[in-house]
UniProtKB/TrEMBL annotation, chain B:
Family the entry assigns: Belongs to the ABC transporter superfamily.
GO terms classed as biological process: quaternary ammonium group transport
Species this protein is from: Pelagibacterium lacus
Protein name: ABC transporter ATP-binding protein
Gene3D superfamilies per record: P-loop containing nucleotide triphosphate hydrolases
Amino acid sequence: MIAIRFLSPVQQRFDKLGVVIAALGLFALYAQPFLASRANRIVPGEPLMIWQAPGAGGWPMMAALTIAFGVLLFRTAPIVRLGTASAALLGLAIAVGLGASSVLSPGDSFARISPGSGFWLMGFALALAATDGLARLRLGPVARLGVLVAVIVAVVAILASGIWDDLAAMREYQSRSAAFWRELNTHLFLAFGAVGAAIVVGVPVGIVCYSLPKVRGAVLGVLNIVQTIPSIALFGLLIAPMAWIGANIPGASALGIAGIGVAPAFVALFAYSLLPMVSNTVVGLEGVPRDASEAARGMGMTGAQRMAEILLPLAFPVILTGIRIVLVQNIGLAVIAGLIGGGGLGIFVFQGIAQTAMPLVLLGAIPAVAMAFTAAIILDAGVELSRKGIA
Amino acid sequence: MIEIENLTKLYDGRAVVDDVTLTVPAGEIAAIVGTSGSGKTTLLRMINRLVEPSSGSIRIDGRDNRDVPAHELRRHIGYAIQGHGLFPHQDVARNIATVPRLLGWDKRMISERVDELLALFQLDPAEYRKRMPHELSGGQKQRVGVARALAAGPSVLLMDEPFGALDPIIRHKAQEDLLDIQRRLGTTIVLVTHDMDEAVRLGNRIAVMSEGRVRQYARPEEIIAAPADDFVLAMLGTGDRAFRLLSLRTVAEALEAGEAEGTPIVDTASLREAYAEMLWSRRAALPVSRAGALVGRVTRAACEKAATRQP
């Protein structure tokens, strides 16, 4: 029996996701404030519609955005969707900066202009359209890295041009730029350092678990329990033992080991990283084709040669997937370190929450999200490329 | 030469290989046939010590195989397995070079050896050296697998169902290539298979195994003509034993003087092929050619005589 499904003309013409994107975008454009203006950092904001901010481009910009959402509404080629969404995002990014400058009276250093819900919703809708277009294009790993580089170049160019300098989050940055870079460094050290330590420890432990099935259950069980401890609780639990080590082990305090600070944050992130590293190493090694591993033994490789030349290279894509999981997880989790004096971008997030200063929260949160995203894209491409080498 | 003496392997007190004694003369192919679970693979794997025996001994070219560490022993014994076992992340050249590299040969020698082996297995070195295993056909993978096993020029080659994953046409070709290469190199081969036809085609001697014991170890014609027990008979099947005997003899062995009608048959063909051709073309005899010249004939009567049970 042949089933024939008739599409109504309406179904054929409209893109399913496009309907949602267009509805959300047009609602945000016409019914939500594009900017929020505050007389100083902490008072509640006044909503400003896009047409109330002359610098945002006025009617021509609104017309352009309306047309863009109109294009996304209909079925079109993925490249058209990606192009439209990217152009609209770029326009939006410029409009928000120029719009903010235009409503600020010259010389007023107390007033704060932030992007409003209209901007965020449109940004979300367009980002969704762009990623959807990218996914439908089915780009190879190298092309995806190319897109990532293009996005980074665009963001750096906008930052360097000073278009965003009058936005509240950038004002927060300007008043603490030295602290920002210092905490960004700490954040990267925490996230990457813990991953590095987890690789150095986790891969050998994974190899031992693979070789000795009796050890495996115990090790993975303990790591599983660590993984289930809520992050804030784990940071708290580490205060007592780390303080004891700092106080009683000679030289430990000189290394900065104490109950609070960078050391317990590092240890906690490391502990969270271990399970994915160990279990991905074990799963990767177990996934090596049996006949390849048998042949290696039968041809006279020693255990170490077989591990180094056959098993580890063949398990590499799965181990790299583990590194990806752990790195993305750590970049996010390192924000919590701000709570226990460990530094990192979390400092701005928690200061911002305490002062109800959302722009300051964003100054901490947006770079962390951007770094996690970048790491995910780069490592995903790496995993795909390494799989190709094996196929 | 491989001498296996009173070899036993126990797993949990149960004998998987039970007091096996057999000798494979140098330069011969011994085929070990049996059903799954008969212990044939365990027996093979004890030769290169992938499995350590519970008791008994194995001597290869007069030396006990426990004289050197297991991994060094294995570097001097070729090993080819079902599904080829190529390393999927290394190209053909590197796969073949595995054992020479382990033995520390220098680079130029390894490279020359790789080219030599590829040529021997009818794979153009220029085209195939850099191919990855997934870019090869099933038959090519199998050939590279055997080439890799022979890379360091071992005097002994162990093969565990090497043709098991190939389709029938390619399998037949692979078997002929193996025979050809074995005749050229004079390698002693022990080959495990569950396929009696393959054993008859390849083996100079066949060991029939069941429940860990060797039921009969003899030349194929002896096994076909006089199976030692019911199990061996069952492995052989009774339906086509006459044709099996015919397949072991060549036309040259039944050649007689005289003439016959029609297209000639080459003297290296088997009597089975000759007999089939006679039935098909309704002839009582075929002319026989050798190197293009007619040298005599082969008759139905000669074939039938060769196919009957010897007293």
